[in-house]
Amino acid sequence: MTMRVYLSGEIHTDWRDQIIAGAAGLDVVFSSPVTDHAASDDCGVAIMGEEADKFWHDNKGARLNAIRTRKAIADADIVIVRFGEKYRQWNAAFDAGYAAALGKSLIIMHGADHQHALKEVDAAALAVTQTPEQIVQILTYVQDGTLPS
To answer: Which residue from 7, 97, 114, 128 has the highest number of Cβ atoms inside 10 Å of its Cβ?
Structure first.
């Protein structure tokens, strides 16, 4: 059973790489947003033309990124959303809500310091974790029913 997993959330650490490496050997296909921050911010104006107003610059990029995000979340069996320590990831919260609205299996990852702020997001999830290792253990359990040794 191939699982399609979308990795949403902060782009400033290597948590995605840790999950992908840890899941080696599982039948999992991963997707994610564009994690090159500059490319993600500037895709709209790079493709559709410059904007003098920063609002419209950002709006063009957000709309193009939404095409990729909506498709990836719709195709995913599991959506994992990571909330990092340093930045507020409004886009990650939106992705979590979108996935929940679509009835996707949702796993949230964040540190204890975000517990109160993300209580509603956590309540929509089927699992709330703190580490990439826990995510890999969940994927392993879901795929083949084995627990960590």
So the answer is: 7
Give every residue of the chain whose pLDDT is below 50, as ranges: none
What are φ and ψ of residue 30, in 5° steps? -100, 145
Contact 46, 22 (CB under 8 A): no
72-85: b or e for each residue (b if 16 or more CB lie within 10 Å)? bbeebebbbbbbbe
CB distance 68 to 95 below 8 Å: no
Domain covering 3-33+75-144, topology: Rossmann fold (3.40.50)
The helices-and-strands tally (H runs, E runs) of the chain is: 6, 5
Q: How high is the pLDDT of residue 90?
A: 87
Cα 122 to chain centroid, rounded: 14
| pTM to 2 decimal places | 0.95
Is residue 28 classed as helix, strand or coil in its secondary structure? Answer: strand
Per-residue model confidence (pLDDT) at position 149: 84
